[in-house]
Amino acid sequence: MDTNVPAEEQIIALVNCTENVFNTISAAQLGGRKLYSFTNPIELYNSLDKQKFNLVAIISQNEVLAQGGIAFLEALRKRNIDVPFFLISQQLSESTVKLSLKAGVADVFKLPIKQSSIELRVPLLIEKWDALKNTNNVIEFHKYKTPFIKRVFDIVFASTVLLLISPLLLIICILLKLESKGPIFYYALRVGAGYRTFKFYKFRSMFVNADQKIKELKHLNQYAPAADSGGGSDENTLYICEECRAAGTQCQFPIYSDKIRWCEKQYASTKKAKAGSAFFKLKDDPRITRVGKFIRNTSIDELPQLWNVIIGDMSIVGNRPLPLYEAEKLTTDKYAMRFMAPAGITGLWQVEKRGKGEMSEEERLMLDNKYAENHSFTNDIKLILRTIPALLQSESV
Fold first, then answer.
1. Rounded distance, CA 38 to CA 73, Å?
2. Residues 197, 203: contact at Cβ < 8 Å?
3. Which domains, and CATH codes, for the chain?
4. Which helix or strand (DSSP H or E) is residue 9 part of?
5. In terms of C-beta density within 10 A (0-12 exposed, 13-18 middle, 19 or more buried), how is residue 49 classed?
6. Using CA atoms, how far apart are residues 369 and 347, in angstroms rounded to an integer?
């Protein structure tokens, strides 16, 4: 990529575009604007610090919930980069198109793209962007709008609970510090209403060196598969899943505690893989502290999410926010409806699940959709009243 670009030259950044897509866009008449190609969102994001060029548009070939989709647009907004953002995707439906536009995407194209469509729509939106971004057609309705009465209730309820339980929170903080070194809180990125990402807070319930402890105790598992003893992988090697490796990036699904970082996708994958083997699971999971076990069993580790409610990321009642790697799979008409409701601490599926055994992923998603279609302040109050007796059930959620 040529770094010596005159300031007056207008640049359109292409992100993750295949050769066919790049050739189609290159052949289009774009008003003399030049194209810069980037292999992934991180490369473009980093280049904005290293070089100065007159960026007028971004065209990203990614699915709506992939890292180069809405999440990337949100990251650009936080840096005050306000240029038309276009998505080129393979899987588009009426719901995902609407959600993309509500999130602030200027326009979406479905593969295979046509040169005529690029020529007609991209230059027009670049030229009219300053006018369009101030209208209701593009930007102002990109986020789910919490009703006023619900927002007031969320703030009053969350603030009151935090005040009442502040002695308990203080004790938990002290116990966590006394038992193990490390931060008290950690956060992971979650996807809530309108596919908006935010920092989702919890109390730390694991040792900071939990992964190393697992490897140290691995030899004690006499039923471990033979494959576990082979390969001799370096225990200091950073886990990179196939998706991140293909994108040529670092971990895209991190969990943070100050300077400490875990891979959330690795944790979920490992947990799923071990679930099918009763002989692999240790009686006392060495990753979890004694205090951590208690706060998990009692759901106290979830209490920091009351702060998410106060700052507006979540509501008391809503659909549970999802990790990025789960949310990016739910882009069809069948499942996308769940993101048209607020993210919440408790909701319909949590109440329905209590004491009724395992609930399939399909059943949970259908309940999420049901809540999104029928949510109201009155129904939220009913769910809160149902949550209290549900907490007395033996099964935790």
1. 15
2. no
3. 10-132 (3.40.50.2300)
4. none
5. exposed
6. 11
Per-residue pLDDT reduced to its tens digit, 325-361 = 676 666 555 566 777 788 898 888 777 765 555 667 7
| Residue 235, pLDDT score | 35
**Bridge partners for 39 per DSSP:** none
| C-beta separation of 337 from 194 below 8 A | no
Distance CA 293, CA 300 (A): 10
For residue 249, with 0-12 CB atoms within 10 Å meaning exposed, 13-18 middle and 19 or more buried, which class applies?
middle
Which stretches of the chain drop beneath a pLDDT of 70? 1-8, 132-144, 209-286, 325, 327-336, 353-359, 388-397
**Cα atoms in the 13 Å half-sphere on the side-chain side of 247:** 21
Orientation of helix 19-27 relative to helix 115-132, angle to 10°:
70
Given this model, what pLDDT does residue 80 score? 85
Report the predicted TM-score, pTM, of the whole model to 2 decimal places: 0.53
Conformation bin of residue 215: beta by default, left when phi > 0, alpha when psi is -120 to 50: alpha
What is d(CA 334, CA 365) in angstroms, rounded to the nearest whole number?
9
What SS3 class is residue 288? strand
- Residue 25: helix, strand or coil by DSSP? helix
Q: What is the pLDDT of residue 159?
A: 95
Give the H/E segment covering residue 341. none
Q: How far is CA 123 from the centre of its chain?
A: 31
Three-state DSSP class for residue 109: strand
Q: Which of 147, 210, 156, 221 lies closest to 181, judged by CA?
A: 210
User: What are the Cα distances from residue 207, in Å, to 53, 67, 108, 117?
Assistant: 45, 29, 44, 53
CA distance 37 to 46: 13
Token pair, residue 55, equals: 């960026």
Work out the end-to-end distance of the chain between its first and last CA atoms, rounded to an integer number of angstroms: 50
Instruction: Please tell me the predicted confidence (pLDDT) of residue 264.
Output: 63
Judged by DSSP in three states, 30 sits in coil
Label residue 341 left, alpha or beta by phi (over 0 means left) and psi (-120 to 50 means alpha): beta
CB-CB contact of 226 with 131 (8 Å): no
